[in-house]
Amino acid sequence: MIRMIRVLLVDDDPLVRSGLRLMLGGADDIEVVAEAADGGEVLALVDEHAPDLVLMDIRMPGMDGLEATGLLRARPGAPAVVMLTTFKDDEQVLGALRAGAAGFLLKHTPPAEIVAAVRRVKAGEPVLSPAVTEQLIARVTQGGDTTVPRRPETAEARIRLDRLGDREREVAVAVGRGRTNAEIAAELYMSVATVKAHVSHILTKLEHTNRVQIALTVHYAGLV
Fold first, then answer.
1. pLDDT digits over 140-183, tens only?
2. 45-61 pLDDT, tens per residue?
3. What is the rounded average pLDDT of the residues 4-22?
4. Distance of alpha carbon 58 from the chain centroid
5. Are 14 and 3 in contact, with CB atoms under 8 Å apart?
6. Reduced 3-state DSSP string for the chain
């Protein structure tokens, strides 16, 4: 029997929700269990439907995706959250990272890639869109984000990375380059399970909650 991936859709645009439901419903292992038009509905719907994953819009007129994600991820056993974003949302995306989002999907991502992303997150591998990651890194490392001073962040990043062992450092750099677990395993001649274990240890040692934060730390330190 196929283990269904239960998804909660959160977007104030009914057409966006309809499109997502249609494309996800075409997969034989994904089930959209509920929809919400506002972040304020999320906690109650998660309690009622126990989704594995929440696809959450960043911009909503009531409670936005940032606040809803922070509230949800503060709860034990919370489902993963993947943010729906556009390039113009980069400031909000930085906030979503701090709130504990597992990854990001651009709203114009092809349907097949959205389905694949849902499966990857359920398998424990957060989604890193190279385009979004590059935009964020450019913003915070080139002075685009004035709330993140370049020099202190560089020093802090290097101090954090000094906590890692040699092999963990290699994995962290590969994450910073946007590599998937399978790609890291092939490059560093280790099993995917070993890569996952290293990533878990890296998250703990760096005091991060997702791979995007690892990538940013590596870039702050000047290793990529």
1. 555 544 344 344 467 788 888 999 999 999 999 998 887 888 88
2. 999 999 999 999 988 88
3. 92
4. 13
5. no
6. CCCCEEEEEECCCHHHHHHHHHHHHCCCCEEEEEEECCHHHHHHHHHHHCCCEEEEECCCCCCCHHHHHHHHHCCCCCCEEEEEECHHHHHHHHHHHHHCCCEEEECCCCHHHHHHHHHHHHCCCCCCCHHHHHHHHHHHHCCCCCCCCHHHHHHHHHHHHCCCCHHHHHHHHHHHCCCCHHHHHHHHCCCHHHHHHHHHHHHHHHCCCCHHHHHHHHHHCCCC
Residue 166, burial from CB neighbour count under 10 angstroms (0-12, 13-18, 19+) = exposed
At residue 175, the pLDDT reads 87
Amino acid at 185: A
End-to-end CA, the chain: 43
